[in-house]
Amino acid sequence: MDILLIGGLWLDTSAWDDVVPELEALGHRAVPVALPGQGDGSTTATLADQVAAVLAAVDSSAGKPLVVGHSAACTLAWLAADARPEKIAGVVLIGGFPWDDGKLYADLFEMTDGVMPFPGWGPFEGPDSADLSDEVKAALAAKAVPVPEGVARGVVHLTDERRFDVPVVVVCPEFTPEQARQWIDAGDVPELARAKNVELVDLDSGHWPMFTRPTALATLLANATP
């Protein structure tokens, strides 16, 4: 099966370098999705551009792909479910949840000259980054791609309620499945509260398991395929 891998903020496709061979060894075709504005040098890309890139990857897949979103890109994966509910096998959300209609995609940190630079590790102290070595932190910060304002402040538009029929697996790294269930039941994640098939799975890692637990992550992704 094709497994489309969508990295979160500041990540380019190289974020999946350690996961791709693990998925291929398990018999799947892993496809890191290149997002406009996250690795191609563009500072004017928009959220619509990134959605279009994800949908192009869906449309060019053989059969129905599994769409995987990490962190903020959980919303991109969910937008694919909204736009192509009949063309995808399911979505996997790693360390995040999809925004609902009308929210800004990722207006989270200060903008500088039309982009949102990586803010340093301060905001991610604690469980998010506890499993990252100083060397890995330095390497990630050095490679971090500033996110264009048109992406970060793009408005999420959801239109097709068939998205709620798409199977969802939430990979819980720096939080537990029990916490995720509490947030969903409390109404903090309205999209998943309405989804008909949601599975919560635990992964003992921080927020970036593609760097620290690539084999375990690949196994979870493979297990999420129908």
UniProtKB/TrEMBL annotation:
Keywords: Hydrolase. Residues 3-218 form the AB hydrolase-1 domain. This is Alpha/beta fold hydrolase. It comes from Promicromonospora alba. The keyword Hydrolase applies. The keyword Transcription regulation does not apply. InterPro entries: AB_hydrolase_1, AB_hydrolase_fold, Sec-Metab_Biosynth_Hydrolase. It holds the Pfam family Abhydrolase_6. GO terms for molecular function: hydrolase activity. PANTHER family: AB HYDROLASE-1 DOMAIN-CONTAINING PROTEIN-RELATED, ESTERASE_LIPASE_THIOESTERASE DOMAIN-CONTAINING PROTEIN.
